[in-house]
Structure formats: C-alpha cells, structure tokens
Amino acid sequence: MRRVALLLFLLQVAIASRSSLGGVKTHPKWTADEETVPDHSRVQFSVHLPQTNLDKLEKLFWKVSDPKSRDFGRYRDMQELHDLTAPAPESFRKIERWLHSVQRAKIRRFDNHFSVELTARDASQLFQAPVRMWTHVDSGHRQARFYGDITVPTSVREHIHLVSGGLMRFHNAKRSLKRTPPRPHAEPIDYPYYRGYNSTLAALRRAYNITMNSTTTGQVIQVIYEFGDYYTPSDLRSFYRANNINSTLLPIARGTNCISKGCDTTESNLDVQYMMGTAANTKTYFLNFDPSVFMLEALQDTLSFTRYQPTVISMSWGGVEYVECPNEDLCQYDLQSDLDYANATDVLLMKFGVAGTSVVVSSGDNGALNFLDTSGNCPLDNQYFCPGYDYACDDVFSSCQQVLVTFNGTTVSYPNSYTSGFLDPSLVDVISSDNQACNVSYVSIEGRTTVLTGICTCDQLIYNDYLLNGTLYQIRPYTFNSSNGSPFEPGWPASSPYLTSVGGTILLDATTEIFASYDTGSIIAGGGGFSKMYPQPSYQKDFVQQWMNGRNTTFTPLSSFNSSNRAYPDISLSAHAYPIYDGGSVGFVDGTSASAPLMGGILSLINDRLIALGYPTLGFINPLLYHIASDRPDIYRDITSGKNNWSSATVCQIGFDSAEGWDPVTGLGSPNVGLLTDYIIQLYQQTHTTKTTSAYSTLPIDTVTELTQSITFQRTTFTRVSPAPPPRTSPTETLVPTVPVSSSVSLTVSLLLFVTILLST
Q1: How many Cβ atoms sit within 10 Å of the Cβ of residue 403?
Q2: Which of helix, strand or coil describes residue 106?
Q3: pLDDT of residue 400
Q4: Mean per-residue pLDDT for 415-426?
Q5: Beta bridge partner(s), residue 109
Q6: Distance (Å, whole) CA 468 – CA 302
Q7: Is 663 annotated as a binding residue?
Q8: Are 366 and 387 in contact (CB under 8 A)?
Q9: Judging by beta carbons within 10 Å of its beta carbon (0-12, 13-18, 19+), is residue 749 exposed, middle or buried?
Q10: For residue 249, what are the CA distances in angstroms to 214, 239, 272, 283, 319?
C-alpha cells in the first residue's frame, strides 16, 4: 500500500507540475481591480516559439547592409527567412496540444507563433492565473491583464520563448510630440518658443536640399504605425491644398478607426501629412494597433495588411528600454519579459532588414532622462522647475525637488523614482510635518514624474528617520551615486541597433540648425544616449570613440552610462514648429514624431530613384549612413550646439552634449538629401554592376561571404510575419483543427500505464 500511495503521489505531482512565466501583483503605476473580468470577455495573446539558425540570420543581416560587403543589397524573400529560422516541429506539436486543452479557443498557426483568441475564463485556465482590469494611476488607461504568477505546464515551457499581448505586458509607449504654443510660464525662467522658422514642407525642402517631391515608379511602399490614434482624411486633403501637392492619394488604413471613441488624431495627422507630403503619390499603409500591444505585434502583422514587402516603416512611439529594479522583494512583477520582448522584436527587425526594408523611429522627446519616473537617480538642478510648461506647475514651485530614502537596505531618489510608488503613502506627510515652514508637498508633472515642492532649499530641510507600518525610512539629502540606479533611461525601440533612430533639431533658418530643447526654444528635448542592454555595433564604434575622447567628463561622468553599448540617435532632422491640419484647423507641433516620418519620406524618395535605375532598395541604412559620414562628412550638417540634460519636468545636472562629428544628442547631424542621394546612386553603380528588376537576390543563404560586422546579443526567438514579398494573396496560416487534445489527459494516461506496470511487477 505504501508503494501504491507513493506512486499515486508522484502521479499527482507530475500532473500538476508547472513552470512560471513571471507575473505581477503590484506595480508602481498600475492598480488592479479586486474582481476578475467577466468569464465571457474575449482576450487575445500570441505564443512565440524558439526559432533556429538565428546566427545565420544575423550574419545575413550585416552582410546585406554593409556597403563594403559583396552581398550588399542582395536581399532575401521574407518567407525564405521564416523557413531558415523555423521552430522545431516538436515545439509546434506541444504548444498546439496545450492550447487545445481548452475547447473554445480560436487558434491560428503562423510560421513562428500561434495567435490565440479565447474567453477570459479559458485564458485563466491555460495560465492558472485570474484576469483582472488594471488602471494606470496617471492616465486612467484601462487594460485587462493577468494578476499574479503566470504558469504553464513544465512539459511545454521550453517550447515557449514569449507570450505577448496585453494580457502579459503593460503598454508603456508614448507618442513623441507636443502641440504648441504653450501657455506662457515663467517660474523661474521662461525660454520663449522660437518662431523664426517654421518647418513647413517648403522650408524643409530648402533646409535639407530635398529636390524630389514625389515618387514615380509605383513600387515604393511606406508604412506608418500608430497605437490607439487615427488620422482624418479631410485634414490630409487640406494639407495637400495648402502645400500645393498634386495628389489625392489617401493612405490605405488598417486597424480600428477609433475616432468615434474619442481617440487622439494629432500624432497620426502629423505622421501621415509629412510622410505623404514629403514623398507624394507614394502608396502608404496606415496601420493602427490596439494600445495594449506594441512594435513586436505591429511588425508580425505588417505583411498581413500590406501583402507586399514595404520599403520603409516609420514609427513615432517609444517606451523605456529596461527598468532596473533596486529591490527584488519590492518589484513584484516580471522584468525578464521586457528583454524577451525586445529580443523577439529585434529578430523581426533583422528579417525586415534582410528583406530590404528600412525602419525609422523617433528618438524620444525628454532628453537623456527620457522616461523620467524610472530610477530618478539624476542630480536635479533646483534652479529650474517644470521647464515643460505643465499646467500642474502653475501654482507651485520647488527649491528642493528630491531627497534620498533608504529602507530595507535599498536607497532610492524620492519621490521622482518609480520605486516611490511602492513606499508608504504617508511618507511625504511626515516629511511635510517636520518641514511645515517650508510648505513641503509634491506634484506630478505630465502624469509621469513626481517631485517635491516647497520654498526651502535642500540644505534648509529637516531630515529624519520614520518608522511607518513596520518599515524604517531614513531620509537624507540627495547625493548622486551611480550604484543607486542609472541616471539616464534610454528609450526603446530607439536604442535598438537594428533600426535607425532619428533625433530632433530646431532650424533657425535654412542653413543654421541647433539641438531642440527647452532652453533653445522648443517644447521638447530630443532623446539620445546609450543603451543599457545592447552592445555597440561596429558601424558606430569609431564615431562613439571620437566623441568619448573629447567629451566633458564633469558634465558626462563615465559612471553614468556604458560607453561600450549602442549609442543613439543615428541622425537628426527638424523637430520644431511643424504646421499640421488637425480637426479642421492649423496648429503647430514639436517632437521627434515629426523627424521620423520626414526621414521615412526622404528614404522613400531615394528608394524610388534606386528602383527607377534598376537597383535594390536601401534596406537597413545605418552602416551606410556611418560609412558616408566617414567618407564624405560634408554630406551632413554637423550640429555642435546643444545638450540633452533637459526634460519636460526637470533639468539634470549631468547629461550628454553636442560635439564635432557624431554625438549622443543629434547623431551624425542632418543630411543634405541631394548630396546623399547622389552619393548612394554612385555607390550602387559601383557595387551593383548588374541591374535587376527585383530587390531580392537568388543567392542561396549558405553561399554568403564572410561576416564583416558583428554584434552579440542574447536572443532566442521571434514571430512570423505572414505573407512574403510580392505578391501573396493571403497570409500563410492554418487554422488548427478544432478537436481538442488535452496534454494533461495524455500525461495522465501515460502515468497510469506506468503505475499499472509497476503494480503488476
């Protein structure tokens, strides 16, 4: 009997064996409802399988992108790349069987992943976690997501690289734009908005020597990504008329038209008007995705919408690259999923690059600090308060914006660290009580960064220890120590080495350009800096080293960033005073949201010239851009004025500054498009002696020449983009059979047979 009991116990353990995918119960910026969502609510997610041959894919990526390689511009069919990296058949079988342990799921199988739609009840059964509605504490955005630890059967865990979708990740992407003019604000210093040179299409063409204004081949396809934002056709027509653009072409819109639900239109109207205005008569796809997803899902679905390989993709949204948690017990949510998500996205970016697509993204609008409420560990300059003209600052002021708090062995900046959201909410009250003469309180600026307010300087405050609900909090004056967290928060995907990051400038006139920041007349500060997780690609090493050799070591201490990592932006364009039509009237906007689609339109014009001459498209352009900067630096306008230590909420005492050559403020500078186009055509004449009507090479993957560039980054998998380049009539997908097969039942049967054999011996 003991033997039987033991075997039955082992049987139960085996059946119940599950492995964790991470999860979240508490978050500094999100709160969960007490109740679960209704059982019948429909939810969606994707299961991404581990892919194979990613080393070969990366070699191809660098070869076809390197102007010094014999394989430069010899692109591949997207389906060929999916076949190259196809997951193991066993992974498909096991994941398919597990997904069918619930009977009401709609499951679609793609080359690298499964797309699943089912009820919240069935999702909870699959992952053994309840689904609750979460609310963002600042924006009020609501999102359905799992609550608590998310698990899967141990037998399938090794076959899952990532589960993506709103159920698994919080959406933290922000658009990179601000509408102007701001309300006058002068506490304590007012930097007036520069109105000397508006970025009209005509002005941009003069400043950047853009002599082409439309595409003619009909073979250029450009794509715009949005997330819960939509454009208005009437405003695009008004923009055409105002700029004398001879076109009636509207973008091919896919995704939900959310205007009736009250979604914003400013971002989308800016992107559409300036990308389609720069490269008029170009076939353009406007893809709007649900705000609960981001770039991974957008890339994997692109070809399902376009059916043809796009030549250029532009995106003006971004999030924080990676949040370093100062205390594992404090951060009860999974951070590894963000790394896995980035890995999966980068694999698709490489596939698009190998297939001949250029991807450009905005570098961000809050300087080196970027997402201001992450570590908070940047020494703030207390003579500046709320430079971004946020209305929340109208009636308050601060002479001491941050202090240090030590608790449970962890030291953080308070209250501007995201960690502050986990601390006892009465902490600010007891600090205020001891400093009544200073009128200490706090204010949330732009719904993201919280800083202390009051009339006393930091050396006038009273600092004490407080025991609150069993936790000892030690309050001390702020001093910068890099061990308390990175002072800068790089933006993602702008920090990815597999795409082109576009920074922002101000045109003072057609020939003079400076960095766009609050202290130079803008209402944004272009993003830039160094990644915390990507090593530096070889195409920029010499340029970064040159900047490092001449940097201001006091303003940019080496302990504040990793100089061996990917640096951005790559290039810059005007991000200031763009007139757009929105809601039937003209308004002005600032932001690298404008720089990115402008660059996208420029690339479409150059691609059109290349195609007309029988050459392949540009593809991933970074190695080419840096090669040109080395060979012909006169093609770029070197921007040597500006520093990116300003943000909309605060000003940091340290940051990055501009310099001759490349710098982490404006990258290589801004291009002379006419000279750039001529150089590229001459280069293609030398490297492509045989012209082709197809952008795709028939050279087998195994015969590519030796690798000339390299970057090492840990990644394991990615998704499928449905159809390959020209033309496919439908996504390459199959509906999984509807007969459910339960993995737990199969395991139970096997174990029962095993027990029977043992008992019979």
Answers
A1: 19
A2: strand
A3: 95
A4: 85
A5: 114, 734
A6: 51
A7: yes
A8: no
A9: exposed
A10: 12, 12, 11, 8, 32
pLDDT of res. 461: 96
Residue 639 in marked binding region? yes
Asked if 572 and 644 touch (Cβ cutoff 8 Å), the reply is no
Query: How would you classify the pairing of strands 358-362 and 500-507?
Result: parallel
**CB under 8 A, 24+ apart: contacts of 184-193:** 185/386, 185/389, 185/393, 185/394, 187/385, 187/386, 187/393, 187/397, 188/383, 188/384, 188/385, 188/397, 189/383, 189/384, 189/387, 191/387, 191/518, 191/519, 191/520, 191/521, 192/521, 193/521, 193/522, 193/523
> What's the chain's average pLDDT?
85
- 182 DSSP 8-state letter: P
Residue with tokens 């892919």: 51
- Please write the tens of the pLDDT for every residue from 165-217: 878 777 666 655 556 544 433 333 456 788 889 999 999 999 999 999 999 99
Closest CA relative to residue 58, chosen from 354, 309, 341, 343: 354
Is pTM beyond 0.85? Reply is yes
- The DSSP code sequence of 679-740 is HHHHHHHHH-SS--SSSB----GGG-------------B----SS-SS--SS-S-EEPPSS-
CA dist., res. 470 & res. 88, Å (int): 52
Burial of 436-474, coded b for 16+ CB within 10 Å and e otherwise, reads eebebebbbbbebbbbbbbebebeebeeeebeeeeeebe
Any idea what DSSP says for residue 663?
A: B
Q: Which domains does the chain have, with CATH numbers?
A: 2-66+73-168+718-743 (no CATH), 174-370+487-700 (3.40.50.200), 391-479 (no CATH)
Token pair recorded at residue 268:
């989308």
| pLDDT for 348 | 98
Q: Can you read off the two tokens belonging to residue 70?
A: 């014999």
Amino acid at 266: T
Q: Which two tokens mark 105?
A: 């799921």
Give 52's contacts (C-beta < 8 A, 6+ positions apart). Answer: 84, 85, 86, 87, 88
First to last CA, the chain: 14
Contact (Cβ atoms closer than 8 angstroms) between residue 540 and residue 634? no
Q: Which helix or strand (DSSP H or E) is residue 67 part of?
A: none
Of the candidates 47, 37, 696, the one whose C-alpha atom is nearest the C-alpha of residue 309 is: 696
Distance CA 498, CA 617 (A): 17
Whether the pLDDT of residue 372 is over 70: the answer is no
Q: At what angle do helices 266-278 and 201-208 cross, to 10 degrees?
A: 50
Q: Determine whether the annotation assigns residue 150 to a binding site.
A: no
Q: What is the pLDDT of residues 702-759, one digit of tens each?
A: 433 333 333 333 332 323 233 333 333 333 333 333 333 333 333 333 433 443 434 3
Strands laid side by side in the 578-582 sheet? 178-180, 585-590, 578-582
Other Cβ atoms within 10 Å of 327 Cβ, number: 14
* Cα 29 to Cα 172: distance, rounded to the nearest angstrom: 10
Integer Rg of the chain from CA: 27
Q: Which amino acids are annotated catalytic?
A: 267, 271, 593
